[in-house]
Specification:
The structure holds two protein chains of two kinds.
Chain A: E1 15-21, E2 24-30, H1 32-37, H2 51-59, H3 69-75, H4 86-92, H5 100-103, H6 105-116, H7 127-151, H8 155-173
Chain B: H1 3-8, E1 25-34, H2 47-61, E2 75-77, H3 83-91, H4 97-101, E3 107-110, E4 116-120, E5 126-133, H5 137-154, E6 159-160, E7 164-165, E8 177-184, H6 186-190, H7 194-203, E9 206-209, E10 222-227, H8 235-263, H9 265-281, H10 287-302, H11 311-320, H12 323-330, H13 336-355
Antiparallel strand pairs in B: 1-5, 1-8, 2-3, 3-4, 4-5, 6-7, 8-10, 9-10
Helix pairs in contact in B: 3-12, 9-10, 10-11, 12-13
Classes of the chains: A mainly alpha, B alpha+beta.
Chain lengths: ~170, ~350
């Protein structure tokens, strides 16, 4: 059984601790992200200054300071899959899941440029993705051709193209 | 292969063979980070999601098309290991400190010869590591890539057309590759040239660290040089660049060694023999001094000033004298002072064995 973090209600609470303030004992359960936000202990981050502090420095450069905190809070994107907000990401210096890249895409370019001097991958592509990419590009081309043949009223050709598109789409959804 | 074998042998199979430039480069390593699509990264995963990742890897291991090098490999769960056992694996560079210390549902898989290890649920879902003796970065990359190709047939990796392979830390995004060499630079250190070298290397986008990674001290003049950039360049370009810089470092180190030999031969001879004397006779030695003396002796062997002690004994001792290994060897937990005594004993025995 996984207890959900009461702060965000999304992630599992993985930090369980007892706080004693003025002799009063309270128990708390939080996820690492919210614990970090609340300034509570975070395992492995206790050395004071780490590489990830440095990284957070890089991540924070585009924080909108002119807006009131309220508005800023509302406009901050939150990843629908893992619940991570951009603010949280910039504090931890880690993405929560692969969908974060889509959610934060608009803000990533300057960050990636600072770290890597580039924003576009030029390396290996998974074999399967390679196939998909090719199909997607082929589909684009076929759709253009289809539009053109419809315009020119070449219906026989249009029907052929339509069948080709359909079979490619089927392959893509397999 | 049993877990005990991994833990007891200080020297992995791969270390017993000499690689290219092995008098300066001890080992070459390539690590690639991969994550499964549609699954939160380990930091934000629930226990059941982490289990699912382990399960998918186990499943892949049962397939017929498994690369020969991974046949009969078994997944070892971190939860089944003691702190000491994990430490030993870190000292052998078979797992990362992160997997040993912070991962809750981590697991690892080794090839028989320990040249390949696949870490599961580290900072990323999967980390494939290939480790070879000497200067063999290309070979390490080819093997890592081949294992990656195989795994990709059975699981779907998180990949983005623009950003490449997606990783938990933005510093690994793109190729997810970290290539590194472990380099022995005693002559550059002795002649004071290292202080000039390191900033220059950092400027070309490479990192220089101690041998146990981020934040670790450079013991025994051993350094780890690795790429920093993972996005915008192909894996081959990244490796080419690292190789180019490392080749220059090898040349400079060799020149410095020649110069030392030419200019102050008797001083150098005295130094390496003195260190061998201490290693052969000391009764108490801490790991810092031991690493320093081993570095001297290794230099002496590589320059032909010392004979009768093979250089591989030095590679072995550099791992054997680490705190985890010493305790594993002793079969009990040892305090710092006891370790210093045991360390001296072990070195004396090992060197004595070779000279008899």
């Amino acid at each position: 059984m996984n207890l959900l973090c009461p702060e965000c209600g999304k992630r599992p609470a993985t930090l369980h601790y007892t706080k004693i303030v003025n002799g009063e004992k309270t128990e708390a359960h939080l996820c690492e992200v919210c614990a970090q936000e609340k300034g509570e202990y975070m395992p492995g981050f206790d050395s004071g200054f780490s590489f990830h502090n440095l990284l957070s420095g890089l991540l924070n450069f585009d924080m909108v300071s002119s807006e009131s905190p309220n508005i800023a809070q509302q406009t901050v994107p939150r990843c629908a899959t893992c619940g991570l907000t951009y603010n949280q990401f910039s504090k931890i210096g880690r993405f929560g899941c692969s969908d974060c890249f889509e959610t934060f895409r608009d803000r990533l370019d300057p960050l990636l440029r600072r770290i890597h001097g580039s924003t576009t991958h030029h390396g290996k592509i998974p074999e399967r993705t390679k196939g998909e990419l090719k199909i997607k590009k082929d589909l684009e081309k076929l759709r253009e051709q289809l539009a053109r043949s419809v315009e020119l009223e070449e219906f026989e050709k249009a029907a052929q193209l339509r069948d080709q598109i359909r079979s490619l789409q089927e392959r893509l959804s397999e | 292969m049993s877990l005990n074998q991994f833990l007891e042998n200080a020297v992995s199979e791969w270390m017993k063979v000499k690689g290219a430039e092995s008098d300066v480069i001890f080992s070459s390593r390539v690590r690639i980070a991969r994550n499964l699509a549609h699954m939160p990264f380990p930091m934000l995963s629930t226990a059941s999601q982490l289990e699912e990742v382990t399960h998918l890897i186990k499943e892949a291991l049962t397939k017929d098309d498994i690369p020969e090098i991974l046949e009969n490999a078994e997944l070892i769960e971190m939860a089944d290991l003691t702190e000491l056992q994990k430490r030993v694996l870190v000292e052998k560079h078979l797992i990362s400190p992160h997997l040993a210390e912070e991962s809750t549902s981590g697991a690892v898989l080794f090839s028989q010869d320990e040249s390949v290890s696949i870490m599961v649920n580290e900072e990323d879902h999967i980390r494939i590591q290939c480790l070879f003796p000497g200067f063999q970065l290309e070979k390490a990359w080819k093997l890592a890539s081949q294992i990656d190709d195989w795994l990709e047939k059975h699981v779907t990796f998180a990949f983005d057309e623009q950003c490449g392979y997606l990783t938990s830390c933005p510093t690994n995004v793109g190729t997810g590759i970290r290539a590194s060499v472990m380099i022995h630079l005693p002559a550059l250190a002795m002649t004071g040239q290292l202080n000039r070298f390191i900033p220059a290397i950092t400027q070309v986008g490479l990192a220089v660290r101690g041998i146990y990674g981020e934040g670790s001290e450079a013991l025994g003049n051993l350094y780890q040089v690795s790429n920093q950039v993972t996005l915008g360049q192909s894996e081959e370009e990244i490796i080419d660049k690292l190789q180019g810089v490392v080749r220059q470092m090898i040349d400079h180190e060799k020149q410095a060694r020649e110069r030392l030999l030419g200019m102050s031969s008797i001083q150098l001879e005295d130094r390496v023999n003195r260190s061998l004397g201490i290693l052969a006779h000391a009764r108490i030695i801490d790991s810092k001094e031991a690493m320093r003396r081993l570095s001297d002796v290794r230099l002496g062997i590589d320059l032909g000033l010392l004979t009768g002690v093979p250089s591989s004994v030095m590679n072995e001792l550099m791992v054997l004298i680490q705190p985890g290994f010493l305790q594993q060897y002793a079969g009990e937990k040892l305090g710092a002072e006891e370790r210093d005594v045991r360390r001296a004993e072990l070195i004396r025995e090992r060197i004595g064995m070779e000279r008899e």
